[in-house]
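Can anyone check this?
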Amino acid sequence: MKINILSKEKSVLLQYLAEIRDKDIQKDRMRFRRNIERIGEIMSYELSKTLSYQPAKVTTPLGEKETQLLAEDLIVCSVLRAGLPLHLGVLNYFDKADNAFISAYRKRNPRTNELEIDVEYFAGPDLQGKTLLLVDPMLATGKSLLAVFNALQKNGKPAKTHILSIIASREGIDFLEKQLNANVELWTADIDPVLNEKAYIVPGLGDAGDLAFGPRK
């Protein structure tokens, strides 16, 4: 699995990352969602450099211009609900892409006290042979993302999968590297060192879904 870390280079991305982490700025939900969306746009631009293109001609009012247009069939799939603002940012750049949505949640097994992942909903097109952009803003343990990835294979095997996560833990990346093959590429804005006892990324930013949309029961 190839890993791309966008914060290695100085850009305006660092400003948006700082703002989504800031506990005072986080109080403005609209600004939080918009910053997530902006980060999705930046990630999409960087990812677009690695995609396939084909020659094309554009007719202007004054003549013709040779150019290159995207040649891949893209499907943007977000993990509900936290993935929605990031999904919008990706869709702003890949506006012709098809869309898919999947839900997954962590629950604790009352017998073993172990965390388990349930994937219970999918809506989207056939993934066979397509380029899948799997969008989830926080990559913590990596187990939820792996469960989602495996569940999606039942809807066709993508030719290539790009995972877009804004903040990833080192533990989660190490886990996915052992589980996923070279046909998967990870794009993350930043990497944080540890997880706490509740499997939240530290320093992270908290619960992205709650910050974007309000607390759950």
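Reply from J.R.: I decoded it. Helices lie at 13-21, 29-48, 84-93, 143-152, 170-179, 208-213.
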